[in-house]
Design brief:
single chain, alpha+beta, 2 domains, 5-stranded mixed β-barrel, 6 helices, 6 strands, disordered C terminus
Length: 214
């Protein structure tokens, strides 16, 4: 468990479209670009072993920024190397952060000064969603998976803790990049669950013209 004072002011940042990391969830990554192989090597030398996942913006913001303002940092917990030098790694989600300034340096990968303020809840125990109706949610999920030709272990979903279930689906479902950013920025587990439900219902309606994230 991390405390707020344990979190560093500067972290390496890994922009990856569609790759959503959430606190207390795990994200497997396949690393093969030389600059990110070096990022992994450098991260292993730190005490915190944190890497900040971040979504690129679909379009540049008005201020010219190419990255979203908010990402989530994960601790490098597993690593294996293939015979041809690629890394298979797992990040364990720790906390969301807000980029305050991109940092230029000699490294070939991006680093950023970050603020952890406002995300203290990420460092606590798993969240509880008191309004979670599991049977109704699983019924909707079943219809969504059928429509998307997806499969899963339904027995494990029936028993999974609500935070693990909702966050795993947020990370794994084929939502659009901006939709995944909305899931990341959800202020509570209940809000994230409501957003997942809305996105699945929207997909089942065939993507009608209304913009559900406005």
């Amino acid at each position: 468990m991390y405390r707020l004072n344990d979190l560093p002011p500067t972290i390496p940042v890994f922009p990856l479209p569609g790759a959503l990391m959430l606190p207390r969830a795990r994200l497997p990554l396949h690393i093969f670009e030389p600059r990110y192989l070096q990022m992994i090597d450098d991260t292993l030398k730190t005490d915190h072993r944190l890497i900040g996942m971040i979504q690129p913006r679909a379009q540049k913001a008005g201020d010219g920024r190419e990255l979203q303002a908010i990402g989530c940092a994960g601790r490098l917990t597993q690593l294996s190397e293939t015979e041809d030098g690629r890394y298979m790694v797992t990040l364990a989600g720790v906390s969301r952060y807000r980029i305050t300034k991109e940092v230029s340096g000699f490294q070939p990968y991006l680093q950023a000064d970050v603020s952890w303020d406002g995300f203290e809840r990420d460092l606590g125990k798993p969240e509880v969603d008191k309004g979670f109706d599991r049977p109704a949610f699983l019924d909707l999920l079943n219809r969504y998976f059928e429509a998307q030709s997806l499969s899963t272990d339904w027995d494990s979903l029936k028993d999974a803790e609500e935070e693990l279930l909702i966050n795993s689906l947020s990370m794994l479902c084929p939502f659009e990049q901006e939709e995944k950013q909305a899931l990341l920025e959800a202020p509570s587990l209940a809000t994230r669950r409501e957003t997942v439900v809305t996105l699945m219902e929207f997909a089942l309606r065939g993507g009608e013209s209304e913009n559900i994230l406005q």
